[in-house]
Amino acid sequence: MNISELIKMGEEAAKKCYKNSEYVGEYYSGQEYEEWLTVAIRFVELNFPGDTDTKRFREIAQTANGFGNDRFYPLIGILKAFNEYPPIPVKEDILPLIKNICMNFNKFDIKIKRRYGNRETIKINDEHDLQDAIHSILKLFVDDIRPEDYVPSYAGGNSRVDFLLPKYGLIIETKMTNNVLHDKQVGEQLIIDFERYKQTNGYNHLVCFIYDREANISNPIGLITDLEKLSNEKMRMTVFISPQ
User: What is the pLDDT of residues 160-179, one digit of tens each?
Assistant: First the structure.
């Protein structure tokens, strides 16, 4: 059933259950009308959860049987509005999951090296290894991950991002520190990346994971604070540094 069919069903139920009393005037009352109201409430709550008009629809529909157009018309009006202008789905907040993965990644790195019988394993030696590992872990939770898509040019060059999560409007960028990549260098790279990424249509959140296994970042809190200050109305920036 779609909304148009639900509206038609309601109009037919209203015709069949139409009443006209000398004392109370015109109204709708009957089993078929009551059944339509129940079906309509269920349909709206399943298809448009959390919308303000969904709550309003339920409040009106629960007491509509036995009343007239003052309640029937608003119900039909809400359904027509949903049909013409469906509400934009609220994006699920995946940030807590990503934070958990990033902040506990070092535990994974340590554990994966300690395989039974010294079997071959994954070694996180550079950013490419880090990207592969994060991508694999994310695939346990997210179906649509688009790696290494081009983003708009900035200052004469193109850039590839590590991962795009289109469902969540989110970009993930990973960095792994080493003996030449410290606070200043990582910060400068991410500032340039941020300027590029904020031009990417459909995305409004950049999450940066800095894997600092050898403790090359001297002031993690300061770096996080400085980078997250870049957030603006076009792009939000969240930074995780692990381990700390």
Answer: 557 889 888 899 999 999 98
Q: Assess contact for 205 and 235: CB atoms under 8 A.
A: yes
Is 31 within 8 Å of 74 (Cβ atoms)?
no
Q: Region 73-101: what's the mean pLDDT? A: 87
Instruction: Write a three-state SS string for 38-68.
Output: HHHHHHHHHHCCCCHHHHHHHHHHCCCCCEC
Amino acid at 19: K
67 phi and psi angles, rounded to 5 deg: -120, 175
Distances (CA, A) of 204 to 73, 89, 120, 180, 232: 39, 16, 39, 31, 9
Q: Is 139 helix (H, G, I), strand (E, B) or coil?
A: coil
Report in angstroms the alpha-carbon separations of 88 from 41, 47, 53, 202, 214. 19, 11, 13, 13, 44
Extract the runs of DSSP E, i.e. beta strands, from 79-125: none
* Cβ–Cβ < 8 Å for 124, 105: no
- Whole-prediction pTM value? 0.61
Residue type, 242: S
Alpha carbon distances (Å) from 205 to 66, 91, 112, 120, 221: 50, 12, 30, 36, 20
